[in-house]
Write a structure and sequence with these properties.
Largest sheet: 4 strands, antiparallel
Strand content: 15-25%
Number of helices: 3
Radius of gyration: 21 Å
Helix content: 10-25%
Number of strands: 4
Structural class: alpha+beta
C-alpha cells in the first residue's frame, strides 16, 4: 500500500503537473491517474469524506471528484476538534537546568 498526502485533489494535482497550456496529455490522462488511485479522501477542518472521480463525457483529460453519499464524518484529527494544548515553554525551560 502506498499512501500519498497532498493539499490538492487529484484533479488539481494533475493540473499542476500537466498544465493545460502544454495541451491535453492523452497518454497520461487524468482518467489514467484516477484509475490508479484506489481511494481519495478529502479532509477539511470539520469533515472527512470519501471522494469518487467522475470523468466528463467524451473527454479523457477532464473530470471532477464528488463526495460519495453517506461517507461524510466529523474530522477528529483537525485542530478544530481538539483543544489547544497548554503553553509549556516555562516547564521546558526549567527542565534544561534540572539534574
Amino acid at each position: 500500500m502506498i499512501i500519498i498526502t497532498t493539499p490538492y485533489m487529484p484533479s488539481e494535482f494533475y493540473g499542476v503537473q500537466f498544465p493545460a497550456v502544454l495541451g491535453p496529455n492523452v497518454i497520461d490522462s487524468l482518467d489514467q491517474l484516477a484509475r490508479r488511485i484506489s481511494l481519495t479522501i478529502e479532509m477539511s477542518g470539520r469533515k472527512i469524506k470519501a471522494m469518487q472521480y467522475r470523468p466528463l463525457p467524451f473527454q479523457t483529460t477532464s473530470g471532477w471528484y464528488w463526495a460519495i453519499p453517506g461517507t461524510e464524518r466529523p474530522n477528529p484529527y483537525s485542530s478544530l476538534a481538539r483543544p489547544t494544548p497548554p503553553n509549556q515553554e516555562e516547564g521546558i525551560y526549567n527542565s534544561i537546568f534540572e539534574d
